[in-house]
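Troubleshooting: if your tokenizer reports a length mismatch, compare your output against this known-good record of 307 residues.
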Amino acid sequence: MSARTRTIPAALAAAALAAVLAACGSGGDGSGGGAGGGAGATSAAAIPAPAKDDALAAKVPSSVSADGTLVYGTDASYPPNEFTDTDGTTVIGMDVDLGTAIAQKLGLQAEFRNSQFSGIIPGIDGARYEAGMSSFSITPERTATVDMISYFTAGTSLAVKAGNPDGLGPDDLCGKAIGVQAGTTQAEEVVTRNQECTSQGRPPIQVTELQQQTDVTLALTSSRIVGMLADSPVAAYAVTTTNGAVEVVGEPYDTAPYGVVIKKGQDDFAQAVQGAIQSLMDDGTYQAILDKWNVGNGAIPTSQINA
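Known-good structure output:
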């Protein structure tokens, strides 16, 4: 599976969370990239705030609603899903707009705290965050320790320099210099691919693993690598923000849903978040947010808990 699939083992209480692999983005301070990083803000109009749903709001635990704020952990280095604006501080993106709308539907204000990706799920367990929204792919390993509410779907894409000068394809990476973001499923994927390369008597992939996706994109545009593996919306966004210096090869593969992460065992809260997402889907707000960030092809019709 690879939808911003990060694979960093994160210990919640030691080995229990070692199996939880992060699904999106890597660590870092989220400051964004340079010319090749591609973290430009969208010029689209703001999305109108949805009305509060009193029935859903009543399901939110008092531990969350008491201060009127829903605190999300996010790793703001994964444009267009979550990244920092040109001021280097404000966190923006598809996940941010959708997370904000979810909070508003529940009668709350959204607060996004920029975190190293590997710290988000442990931070939820430790009550530093009340939810995680950072392109987390839903996996059996994760849902064994946290609850996840689906809202999007993405796959892995191979991106190369314009014109694909090395003639790369997703199944022809042995011996090539390929970049991935640390902790993603793409980082895990190249390990598996290398086993296949060596079993076939071919040279292993020359892997460059960097902490921020924006730095991986920069490595590609500066010719330090010849290709990169990333979530499909991220790879597509890099095409735009590099002014066509990057192109995507073929179609996304290994598609999987993204989910909002909350602490396990909060059934009413999970139902509130799922209900809020479904309501946003039904009233058009959801599609408007995805279209704002040009990721509408990742829309799903129904939100589910631990899908």
